[in-house]
Amino acid sequence: MKTNKAKIINDPVHGFITLDNELLYDVVSHRYFQRLLRIRQLGMSYLVYPGAVHSRFSHALGTMFLMKKAIGVLRNKGVAITDDEALAAQAAILLHDVGHGPFSHCLEHFIIQGVEHETLSKLFMHRINDELGGRLTLAIRIFEGSYEKKFLHQLISSQLDMDRLDYLNRDSFFAGVSEGIVGTERIINMLNVHNDNLVVDEKGIYSIEKFIISRRLMYWQVYMHKTVIAADEVMRNLLKRAKLLMNSGMELPCSEYLRFFFTNSLTLDDLDANPEILEKFALLDDSDIISAAKMWTAHSDFVLSQLAKQLINRGLPCIEVGGEPVDESRVAHYRRMFEQKYGVTPAESEYFVQCGRLQNHAYDFQDQEIEILFKNGRCTGISEASDQLDHDFLAKTVTKYYICYPKEFRG
After folding, report:
1. Can you tell me the distance from the alpha carbon of 281 to that of 49, in angstroms, rounded to the nearest whole number?
2. Average pLDDT along the chain
3. Which of 129, 214, 232, 288 could form a disulfide with 136 if both were Cys (CB 3.0 to 4.6 A apart)?
């Protein structure tokens, strides 16, 4: 029986997204990609913005849609891009986030310590490529940056890529904020290629300025909102406690896949040596964490149950954010208060009083600059071309410090 491999998907951000190629259909249909439906794009942000429950799946489709438009624009400007390259670039960006674990960045490095989601994405891409008979080989080369046309990789990963153009607008839409709304259509239409580098035509400079500022604002407004940071702390401390208890021999109810990663200290070498580990990781998603946390609310371990209740019932700790490092004596004070009230040990009180720092740098001079192409053929970085965003502004890293402690001790 012949399968119809041409599909139209209705996306609330971009409208109708068309899957008009058999390879793209096969990628989207693959179990590794379908798993992204069960992973939230913005992790714990839904506890602050209730609408922010969109998935990595929808974001990946959005990046593919924008990639197709960008390739069309570049072709119309005389940039040589073959049909095979165009298809490979779309497939590559479809899979750019396939390695994300449960709750996306919230648990980065936690499930498999020291392994970035980009590394896991590469492993998944190679596995899918094997199953699809090598049809993703060119896509992988573009994704890894080893293909001869460098600008194709920059469309996937750079300071002005289709990933950022999609997630800023998409995250703004679902969070219900305006800070991340950028002129995606205009930016894409201003893209060009100069000396094999992705650049922006001179007329698009103001749109790029807004894009950079919007990204900086979105970090404070959404990605590093103080309540989201507090929720992330609770999530990580809950799983840290669960892992400790499991490794001390205590039985905790959870999925077999979550138990596997909690009771095994795994490295990248383990992933390379044992293909089954990646398969187990592919069976992990947000539901494993939430279902376990619900069961742990009734557990006899005080620390585990309290943290689980905070997460499930949104009983988050108080968080204060400021410009100066948190005084260690203040941290110690809150921990002593918690120990005295609940009869826990100093080690256990650490789960409930935390401090840390936040850093926001929306532009990275260690990466390749966003370059502006002028009509006379001169090409220069945005820091020189812009009369709004000078080098000092773009290079500035804003650092803030926070302390989380039980709300009952506030005031």
Report:
1. 28
2. 94
3. 129
Phi, psi torsion values for 109, nearest 5 degrees: 75, -10
What's the distance, CA 17 to chain centroid? 22
* 3-state SS class at 330: helix
pLDDT in tens, 156-196: 999 999 999 999 999 999 999 999 999 999 999 999 999 99
**Of 88, 89, 71, whose CA–CA distance to 193 is shortest?**
71
- Report how far residue 150's alpha carbon sits from residue 142's, in angstroms, rounded to the nearest whole number: 8
CB atoms within 10 A of CB 325: 11
Residue 26's SS3 state is: helix
Cα of 180 vs its chain's centroid, Å: 15
Residues 361-385: pLDDT tens digits? Answer: 878 877 788 999 999 999 999 999 9
Per-residue pLDDT tens digits for 102-146: 998 888 888 888 888 999 999 999 999 999 999 999 999 999 999
DSSP sequence for 343-396 = T--HHHHTTT-EEEEEEE-S--TTSPPPEEE-TTS-EEEHHHH-SSS-HHHHH-
Are the C-beta atoms of residues 355 and 233 closer than 8 Å to each other?
no
Question: What does the block give as tokens for 193?
Answer: 């290629």
Task: Tell me which residue of 106, 111, 139 sits closest to 271, measured CA to CA.
Answer: 111
Q: Kindly provide the residue ranges of all beta strands, DSSP E only, lying in 293-353, ordered along the sequence.
A: 318-322
Q: Give how far Cα 371 sits from Cα of 67, 215, 241, Å.
A: 19, 17, 47
Number of separate helices (H) and strands (E) present in the chain: 20, 9
CATH 1.10.3210.10 for domain 7-223+370-395: yes
226-358+403-409 maps to CATH 1.20.1250.30: yes
Q: Specify the domain boundaries for CATH 1.10.3210.10 within the chain.
A: 7-223+370-395
The answer for residues whose C-beta is within 8 angstroms of residue 214's C-beta and 6 or more apart is 168, 179, 180, 181, 182
Strand 379-381 relative to strand 371-373, pairing: antiparallel
pLDDT at residue 411 tops 90: no
d(CA 140, CA 159): 20
Helical pair 83-94 and 22-29, crossing angle rounded to 10 deg: 10
The residues of the chain that CATH labels 1.20.1250.30 are 226-358+403-409
* Radius of gyration of the chain from its Cα atoms, rounded to whole angstroms: 23
